Structures are given as C-alpha cells and as structure tokens.
Automatic annotation (TrEMBL):
It is found in: Cell membrane. Pfam families: PAP2. InterPro entries: PAP2/HPO, PAP2/HPO_sf. The keyword Hydrolase applies. Residues 54-164 form the Phosphatidic acid phosphatase type 2/haloperoxidase domain. The chain crosses the membrane at residues 36-55, 110-134. Keywords: Cell membrane, Hydrolase, Membrane, Transmembrane, Transmembrane helix. It is a multi-pass membrane protein. This is Phosphatase PAP2 family protein.
C-alpha cells in the first residue's frame, strides 16, 4: 500500500507541478467543467429529448456511478491534494469542500463515454481521449490524486457496462 500511495503522490506532483504552462492553464479549467454537474445534466437532458433510449442509458449509468462516488466519499474520506501537499498548483473558484476519493467528474464522463462507445463505436476515438483529458485536468488543477481519477474512470465505465449489458 505504501508503494501505491508513493506512486500516487509522485505522479500527482509530476502532473500538477511539472506540466504547468500557459496553454494548459487556460484549457484545463475549461476541460474540467465538461465532467461537472451542469454539463452532465445538460448532456443527459439533451440525449433524453433527442435519443430517448440512449439518454436513459446515460442517465442510469451516470446516476448509478454518482451514487457509488458519493458513498465512497462518505465512507473513505480522503482529503484533497491541495489540502495535504505543499505548493500544490490550484485555481481559484475550483476549491472544493468535499473529499477527493473517487473523482466524480471522471466517473460521470467515463459513464457517458462507455455508453457512447457501446452504442456508437465510431465516437469512441473522440470520446475516450476527451474523457482522459477531463480526468487529467482534475489532477492538473490540484483537486484529485491519480488513483482518485483511475477509480472514477473504472466506476463510470463499470456502471455504464452494467447498464448497457
């Protein structure tokens, strides 16, 4: 376990501190919001109105992944990296008060991506890299450890796979 936590800390510091550049400083705060509540609700409503059965699958996948995420945050309270790691690069207006583990943004975006990839495989090469960037943005912005993002991706993908199959 010590090795995993050590790896998590080193990878976090590498992404959060060494990748810093003006381009990513502009892009990452915008990317991270694509996995947030407003974007998720908007996507679900749009899909429900346009593609009813696909919208229901996305809604079920996202909803079930978020139930698991919120339960995990309650029972496995891990402080966010910006609270525990000195000189973490963070952006104002993105400081959160809940716990870090697992990443809800990543779970939401991977549940959407998985449903889309199953239903329309042609979108997978676009949706998967976008989901990865959203997950990485959570680390870049100092809000999550890499393991939070990895588990969020697994939870989102697993929720979608259960709904689809």
């Amino acid at each position: 376990m010590h090795k995993i936590l050590n790896w998590d800390m080193h990878l976090f510091c590498y992404i959060n501190k060494r990748w810093q550049c003006s381009f990513l400083d502009k892009i990452m705060p915008k990317m991270t919001h694509l996995g947030g509540l407003k974007a998720s609700v908007l996507i679900c409503l749009t899909l429900l109105m346009s593609f009813h059965s696909l919208g229901k699958e996305v809604l079920l996948a996202m909803g079930s992944s978020q139930i698991v995420v919120q339960a995990a945050k309650k029972f496995l309270p891990r402080p966010r990296p910006f609270l525990t790691i000195p000189q973490t690069n963070i952006w104002k207006n993105l400081i959160l008060k809940d716990y870090s583990f697992p990443s809800g943004h990543t779970a939401a975006t991977f549940s959407l991506t998985t449903v889309l990839a199953v239903s329309f495989p042609v979108f997978a090469p676009i949706a998967l890299p976008l989901s990865l960037v959203i997950g990485i943005s959570r680390i870049y912005l100092g809000l999550h450890y890499p393991s939070d993002v990895l588990i969020g991706a697994i939870l989102g993908s697993a929720s979608a796979a259960i709904v689809c199959f």
